[in-house]
Amino acid sequence: MELHLQIKMNEKLFLRNPEQSDLGKKIILHSIQLIHKNGFESFTFKKLAEDIGTTEAGIYRYFENKHRLLIYIVAWYWSWLEYRVTVHTNNIKDPVVKLKRVIKLLAIAVEDDVKTSYVNESILHQIIITEGSKAYLTKKVSEDNRDHLFKPYKDLCAKIGDIILECNPKYKYPKSLSSTIIEMAHFQNFFMNNLPALTDFGKTKDESKIVAFLEELVFSSIKK
Amino acid sequence: MELHLQIKMNEKLFLRNPEQSDLGKKIILHSIQLIHKNGFESFTFKKLAEDIGTTEAGIYRYFENKHRLLIYIVAWYWSWLEYRVTVHTNNIKDPVVKLKRVIKLLAIAVEDDVKTSYVNESILHQIIITEGSKAYLTKKVSEDNRDHLFKPYKDLCAKIGDIILECNPKYKYPKSLSSTIIEMAHFQNFFMNNLPALTDFGKTKDESKIVAFLEELVFSSIKK
DNA sequence: TTCTAAATGATAGTAATACTATCTTATTAA
DNA sequence: TTAATAAGATAGTATTACTATCATTTAGAA
């Protein structure tokens, strides 16, 4: 049996659904590669079009602008991660074990997932680390939020917050701790690889150290 | 007695030192205002020049490009914050009290500091929250780091890390916890004001709740 | 199978951005 | 007083971020 994971995306993220055509899938695939290679700032629809072998106008039929495309990619990532969290915490009773699994899913790089052939999840993870917060760190954040563009992120945050509450129903900051874990899983990774003085992991580039740090941080906070 | 605080900035941050001329100070003052008003993405040297009443070329004599100017502003902010940390933790013996003061300095909005007339510190704080991480979240981060452009941030992180170690010399992650406090002081503020579902502070916009959250996070982690 | 609508390709064009260059005038320090 | 230095004025270029139009291909319904 071959599984195909299809993530339902908010219609406001795009002008034409990129999942429903070859060109659309190419746009996602190649934009992830290009952003990973050169960074979001130097990423343009022109370069993307050349990369794909189509024209700028072709891209604009799918996405209003490159920021919307970034939000799309980021939203896709968070949806996919929430799916993985669901799968990996499913039959587990102990919320502490659940939370440990979640931390690993957040902090450990993934292997490419065959189920979604037009997305390369391992480089996607790298992109989210460097570019993810740019999706919301803008003047338009409230407007975009009103259009529910950040729903996948908020859903994931809520889900992890619930697991935290399962561990300790009296803990006062489940959502803030949840967003802290999510952000720090990525930022500590970025720091480890690029500004190691901001971490205690040196240049080991060993993600399991981030996991250990986050576990200590989280469980000392929420223990009853 | 009138005090004038002069922060010595890394020479590589600029082409011509903006602190040493009227035009330079205007560039800093007005760029902070403009970035605050419209966001970094829509900020251009042309608009800045018009705002000041000079020409684009004039700005380019001080800063290579707008990203360098952002790094300058961010670096200035971290230097200034480290100075404030030094002042406010000076004669304090108890490292726990010190660390609490630091958390407040990080998380509570400042009033404009008369000592540095050409910088508006309160809106600067707002800018750093929204735009601060864009200074290093780029493809050039290693290059910029080699030029020591992030030294003020790293110095502050080290300083807070040392206070953490004073609280508990055996704590294993002083620097990572330090960078976590710094980043979360800002991110939780941004979330509270723009994406409140990611926090437990609602739309109260009450910074003291962020302080309470961070204190609980930090002190439960480092307690012996 | 044919018709029709939708998607794509090809091309052009515009305003703004991100610079660089040059020349002149004002300021200031030796 | 002169000689450097900073600033102002102006111009120009390549790239970016779009929008518009028309032709061609493709896919689905009649």
For the largest beta-sheet of chain A, the strand count, sense and barrel status come to: none
- The CATH topology of the domain at 73-222 in chain A is given as Tetracycline Repressor, domain 2
Please give the share of residues in helix of chain A: 55-70%
Order of helices and strands of chain A: HHHHHHHHHH
Distance between the termini of chain A: 45 Å
- The total of beta strands of chain A comes to 0
Chain pair forming the biggest interface: A-B, 48 and 49 residues
User: Which architecture of the domain at 73-222 in chain A does the CATH hierarchy give at level 2?
Assistant: Orthogonal Bundle
- Structural class by helix and strand composition of chain A: mainly alpha
Oligomer: homodimer
Kindly report the average pLDDT value of chain A.
94
CATH class of the domain at 73-222 in chain A: Mainly Alpha
Share of β-strand residues of chain A: under 5%
Rg of chain A, Å, rounded: 18 Å
SS summary, helix count of chain A: 10
Query: Stretches of chain A where pLDDT falls below 50 for ≥5 residues?
Result: none
Task: Note down, in words, how this protein is organized.
The structure is a homodimer of 224-residue chains. Helices cover 62% and strands 0% of the residues of chain A. Chain A is mostly helical. Chain A is globular. At the A-B interface, helix 7, helix 8, helix 9 and helix 10 of A face helix 7, helix 8, helix 9 and helix 10 of B.
